[in-house]
Structures are given as C-alpha cells and as structure tokens.
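HUMAN: Forgive my ignorance: could you write out one protein's sequence and backbone structure tokens?

ASSISTANT:
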Amino acid sequence: MNQKTYNIVLILLIVFSFFSAIQPTTKSDYDPQGTYYVSTTGSDITGDGSIGNPWGTIDYAYEHINGQFVLNIRNGTYDERVYQYADRGKSGTIANPSIIQAYPGEVVYWMQRNTTGSPNGAFDATQIQNLTIQNINFVDCVYFGIHLLLQISTYPLNNITIYNCTFTNISCSAIKVRGANAPAYSILIDACSTYNIENGWSSVGHDQEGISFSDTHLSRINNTRMRLCYKNNIDIKGDSSRNVVSNCTINTSRLHYTGTGTLPIGSGGGVYFDAYGQSTSWNIVENCHIFGNRTSIHFNSEVDDGNNAGCNNNTAINCILHVNESPQVDVFPVSYDAGASGRAQLRFNSVYYCTLIGGFSCVGLYRAAADIISCNITDCIMTDADNWAIQMQEPVGNYNFSAYNNLFNLTSEYYGHNSVNGTPDFKGTGSDPYNITSTSDAIDAGADCGYYIDYAFTIRPQGLSFDIGAYEFAEESESTIEFVSIDGGTNGTSILSSCPTFNWTLVANTTQYWLQISTTSTFITLTANITNVCEVIFPTYYTSNATHVSFTLPPSYSLAPNTYYCRVCAQTRSGL
C-alpha cells in the first residue's frame, strides 16, 4: 500500500469512528432495570442516560429503555409528546413499578403544544401496566395531560399510579382513562390538582373534563384538588364500576361560560355519573367537599342503547355539597336524571350523611321518561336553596324515590319519611364551617346507614343515636406531642431518606394527627403539612390498641436531603 492509499484509508477509519461514537445507543444497550436521567442540557445524540451524561428529551429516553426502570427528569421545561403503542416491554411489576418522576427536589414542567395529528397527551399510552408518574407539573397541553387508552383486549391497562402531579391550562382532560375494548383496572390518582381545563383551545372537539374514567374498574381518585373545568371535574361513565372518589376538594365554578341561557344539565359539575348506554355502577364518592356554581353530584342514565343499561348502585357518603353562588335552573347539590328513553333506568343510587347547601333546590329529580327505581337520600341536611329541599320536575316516568331521616329548613315537593323540620346550626367559621354545634336539630336525629366514620373521620355515633349530615357532633380539643424518633434521630437532624418513618407516642382519644415538616424550627414555612394521619387513611401504621404510631411518609411528599424540624398535633375528641 502506497502512502497516498494509506492516508485515505486512515482518514476513512477516523471519520467512521467519529460517526460511530455519536450514534444513538439502541434499546438493547440499556439495563432493563436501571435508573436514567433526562435534562434540558442533555443530548439524545451523545447522551447515555446517566446522571453525568443525560438524554435531552423525555420521548427519546422512554423510547430507549425497557423493563422496570426509574426515569428522573431534571429541572426545566419540556415541550413534547411521549407515545407508547402496546406494552413494548415498558412495564414494571406490581411490587416494583416503573417510575417517571421529577428528580427529587427539582421542578419539572411538561408541556405539549403540538396541534398536528390525532388528539393525544403529553404522556400518551395505549396499553401499559405497573407504572408510576409522580411530582410533575403538566402545563399548556393542547389535548390531554395524561391519556391512557386500552385498544387491544390482549394487552392490559392496569396498575397505573399518578402521584402529586399538577395539571394547568389543559385543552381537553387533565387525565383521561379509556378502556375501549376491555376495561382498565386499578388506576390510582393521588394528591394531584387540576386547574383551568379547556384553556381556549376548545376547537379540538374533545371533552373538557378534569379527570375522566370511561370503562374503568376498581380505580381511585384520592386527595385531589380541582378547580375551573369547562365541563365536569370528574366524569365516571360508560361501563365503569367499583371506582372510588375520596377526600377531594372540587370547585365547580365555571370559567368560560358568559351566556345568559341555561347550560347543559350537569355541565361543569363536580362528580358526574354518566351511563351513556352502558352500566355505570357501584361507584362511591366519599368525604369530598364540592362547591361552586354548578351541580355537585349528578346521576345520569339519559342515553340507552337498548340493553336496559343505566346508572345503578352508586353512592355518595359524608360529603359537603354546596352551590354557593347564584344558581340557574337545574343546578343542584344532588341531581337525578332518569333520561328521555324509557329503558334508561336510574336504579339504587343513594346519598347518605351528606350536607346539601344552596342550589335552585337541594335535590333535583327530572326528565323521567324512564323510571327512577329505589333511589334514596337518607340522613342528609338540606338548607339554603332558592326553592325546595327536594324538587320533582317533568314526572313522566315512575318515581320510586325515598327520603328518610333528613333535616330540612325549606319547603319541599317531597319530604319522605321521619324527616326533621329544623335548623342545622352550623359553626360558620374556622376550617369546618359546616360542622354542627351543640344546639343543632341534626344531633341524634339520624339512623344507622352502615357507615361509622363521618366527614372529619369522627366515629359514629357519638351520642344516643347517629347525627344527620356530614358531621357527627363531638367536642374537640388539641394537644401537641414530641417525636420519639425520626429514622432513629431527633428534631433538627439531617434526613437522608426521601420517605422517612416517624414514630411517636399515641395520644388517647385521638382521631387524627397533623404531621408538619419544616426547614426552620419556627415552622413559619412548611415543607409538608399532612392532615388525616389516622387509621382510616393509613390503616397499616397503627391500631387503636397500640401505644406508638409509626408513619412512613408517602411518596407524594418525598423529601430532598436536608435538615428538617418536625412536629405532630393530635386532635382529640371527647366521648370516644
């Protein structure tokens, strides 16, 4: 080989080596159970997903890892869509799910502003299981924040957890779960918030709901705050059963409606059960505060597909339902719509131990071309509506509706049985203004409906019998206690674990504790303020016969390494 040929070969080898070095690594090159990183300063070309050499986009990272993984997204704003069709090996296990999260202690904003193509989400998966998405702020998404769809029945859509995420300025739904050809199962949405759903991009033509469950079973929405949705904050529809909405705060006030006419029934409401030709059944709303200028809870079986489907056996328990702004016609704390079709029945839907305030009337029964069968409202307070306690509209079908042991201070088109005409005597101030006082006519006037914890997690009954409404009356007192240990240390020491375990001596007659964590000993600002640390919410941490409480911080409150001060306040009630 002459010198010229040698030089050419050498140059070609150098060029080949250079381009080989910067080629993206294939999926098979990555540990199927690894921890990976994405950063706005990273690169999809030269990055390898390590903390020192992260990738540049979430989509590339998700595309190039398999099996059980932890994907940490570093501080910054990301404008992209992550799409998964079928499982594609992304799932973890039930015990060890895959995790997509903001890097601990950092703030991540995930946007999706691309309007081309079919409607999609910032995170869009058609089939997936055993995945947790946590500590991420979804903002300015032109369609959905998170969209989960089951299109192929042979692939699962289950065991998905969404922790401590916020959804702001979302065009369609913040979270939409759809089991199209088979039901989705075990979806947990916990400690999240939604705000301004339908942010002006209404031309996309899809639902503008906060959280939508369609054909979804055995799932839960917990400890979530919702405000300003164009349509319904929570919509449970189609073939959806055995789902639970608990401990949520929902503001139903409309943001975009400026007209003078009436809105569609239930539009912009709190929790909306919509059978839509299928069977929406055995769902529960419990311990929620729903307020604003739209209907709080709506049972609907308006559409029928000829299979005698309907909205059946759904229950609301221990809720405060308050229409606190000037309502239009057909706005109620609770409404029942039996539908225009004669076969779209509304059956066995019940409301127990709720406090209903305001509205055109407290309860509306209407559009009953079909039958209302064995629905009831029991042990509820109904007050301060513009018209009636219970109002019957358009009674075309058959009514088999019962009201029992309720407290009215309103006239009513239907009173039911054993009801009390009196005053609730609310506290009116503080953190629980709708709690009753010692002079309330609701005290000892209720019946045993089979639920033994009230809205504030007080044991029922406290007196001679059950109280009417969301609260069971009991005297209160508060005390503070010292920590026994914090991961073996004391207050003011460094906490390295993101989810430490706290231990303290149990205080007698305590119904719940407040755990407060701060970086200062004065607690002027709080890193975490966790209420309702009690057996009802955390049943594995202590029992009523124990002498100590052992409480592990949930992942939604995970701490960055730092020095923290901690304290506990115990709320005690007399008569326990």
Summary: The helical segments are 3-21, 58-63. The longest strand covers residues 562-573. The mean pLDDT is 79. Residues 136 and 181 are 30 Å apart (CA to CA).
